[in-house]
Automatic annotation (TrEMBL):
Residues 429-454 are annotated as: Disordered. The chain crosses the membrane at residues 21-44, 50-68, 80-99, 105-123, 130-152, 164-184, 191-213, 233-253, 317-339, 345-362, 374-390, 405-424. This is Uracil-xanthine permease family protein. Belongs to the nucleobase:cation symporter-2 (NCS2) (TC 2.A.40) family. It is a multi-pass membrane protein. It is found in: Cell membrane. Residues 438-454 have a biased composition (Low complexity). It comes from the Bacteria. Keywords: Cell membrane, Membrane, Transmembrane, Transmembrane helix, Transport. InterPro entries: NCS2 (IPR006043), UacT-like (IPR017588), Xan_ur_permease (IPR006042).
Length: 454
């Protein structure tokens, strides 16, 4: 197991170094955070000023909850480098509620639905026992496999783009990918640790020189805006509450898997009490987000890739990312500037980050017990998870409830792995959870430099 460049409690030397390391987490998450309110706004045909209000609230809420998740406040917060943001897991239920009851219905249903996650957090010591090493290894691998198509779509120019797959897009993505590889492999200290942000910066400069950057959004964005609590009001339709509660149940499974992956990447034991603190922050954070007029938040899996790739596991770095998100919510022009980064640039870096999660998952799978039972669990759960990931239309004729629960490959893979582990003879995970080493078989990242080298 390779040594982390910075451990969970380490503080990188100097504000410039810390800012660079924080910025790459921001770049990895910002697009997803902004995309969800934009999807809601487009689906509900909201006027531009209301979409801006949703985006600002999402950024501000994500920033505050990220800070709490990383720093911890009493029993709330997992105290790991965890970026929080609005989640696509709630888009299906949110749009269906919004079309009938508007944004107030989405926010009110989210507020009540968050109680499911808050209540579920108290059962995490029990739920943790359903995630022994084999199951955790499957979930980590599925996170990487599910995110990789996202990076591929970015590299190709974005889903729905008329120039999807154009040679120019792929060339830019390949250029950024090559730079990130070079920075990680041959860079020293802070250069290696900030490989993602340096690769994106070089790709951005290339696109700027080629005239591919559109600054229209920057010119139109307000410089300063304060999100207003209860800006849209709230409504509490029973059907909406049920739909969002189901979405929160699904998110509990995905977030548990993400926390386990984060534990492996940071070489930190993830026991039931720590899971409970993280899940409680997710639930309370979503309730707070609803009051701030933002869609629900959850833990971002893509930022696990940043940790795995760079070997920077410092929660203090990601706390600064939370401050940046908060600032982006108060100064929309900053968020608009980041959004000008072309998708192929993000795709080149994202492919490396998400593939690193797959690599970590494969290492974990390799350290699992070599038995027919273990092989069966791994094969079937990965196969089912990939079926939904690569062929999402597989569930197109299913009832809405089934699509909501099984629409994510991560959730399907996790549920199948947990189910097989319970049903097949010789159940794994009956030993005390604290006895299982964190990140067994996982090397943090191909980072050779030590913390002192920075």
């Amino acid at each position: 197991m390779e040594k982390l460049l910075y451990g969970v409690e380490d503080r990188p030397p100097g504000l410039i170094t810390t800012t660079l390391l924080s910025l790459q987490h921001l770049l990895a998450a910002l697009g997803g955070i902004i995309a969800v309110p934009l999807v809601f706004g487009g689906a509900l045909k909201l006027p531009a000023d209301q979409i801006v209000a949703l985006v600002n609230a999402a950024l501000l809420g994500s920033g505050i909850v990220t800070i709490i998740q990383c720093r911890g406040v009493g029993p709330v917060g997992i105290r790991l480098p965890c970026v929080m943001g609005t989640s696509f897991a709630f888009v299906g239920a949110g749009v269906s509620v919004g079309l009938e009851h508007g944004v107030p219905g989405i926010l009110g249903s989210s507020l009540v639905g968050s109680l499911v996650m808050i209540a579920g957090s108290f059962f995490m010591p029990v739920i943790r026992r359903f995630f022994p090493h084999t199951v955790t290894s499957v979930v980590v691998t599925m996170i990487g496999l599910s995110l990789t198509p996202v990076a591929v779509d970015w590299a190709a120019g974005g889903v729905g783009s008329g120039s999807y797959g154009a040679v120019g897009h792929l060339a830019i993505a390949g250029f950024v990918l090559a730079l990130v590889i070079g920075f990680v492999q041959w860079g020293k200290g802070v250069v290696s640790a900030s490989a993602v942000v340096l690769g994106i910066a070089c790709g951005y400069l290339l696109c700027l020189a080629l005239g591919l950057i559109d600054f229209t959004q920057v010119r139109e964005a307000p410089v300063f805006a304060i999100p207003q609590p209860l800006h849209f009001g709230m409504a509490f339709p029973v059907s909406g509450i049920v739909a969002m509660s189901i979405a929160f149940l699904v998110t509990i499974v995905e977030t548990t898997g993400t926390f386990m992956a984060l534990g492996a990447a940071t070489q930190t034991p993830i026991h039931g009490k720590r899971l409970a603190s993280g899940m409680l922050c997710d639930g309370l954070g979503s309730a707070f987000a609803a009051l701030m007029s933002s869609p629900p938040v959850s833990t971002f899996a893509q930022n696990v890739g940043v940790v795995s790739l760079t070997g920077v596991a410092s929660r203090h770095v990601v706390m600064l990312t939370g401050v940046m998100l908060l600032a982006a919510g108060l100064f929309p022009v900053l968020g608009a500037l980041v959004v000008t980064i072309p998708q192929p640039v993000l795709g080149g870096a994202g492919l490396m980050m998400f593939a690193t999660i797959i690599s970590a998952g494969i290492r974990m799978l390799g350290s699992c017990e070599q038995s027919r039972r273990s092989s069966l669990i791994i094969a079937v759960s990965l196969g089912c998870g990939l079926a939904v990931t690569v062929r999402p239309d597989l569930l197109a004729r299913m009832p809405a409830f089934v699509r909501e629960v099984f629409g994510s490959g991560i959730t399907v893979g996790a549920l199948v792995a947990v189910g097989l582990n319970l049903l097949l003879p010789g159940r794994e995970g009956q030993a005390h959870e604290e006895d299982e080493p964190a990140g067994q078989g996982v090397a943090a990242a191909p980072v050779a430099a030590s913390a002192s080298a920075a």
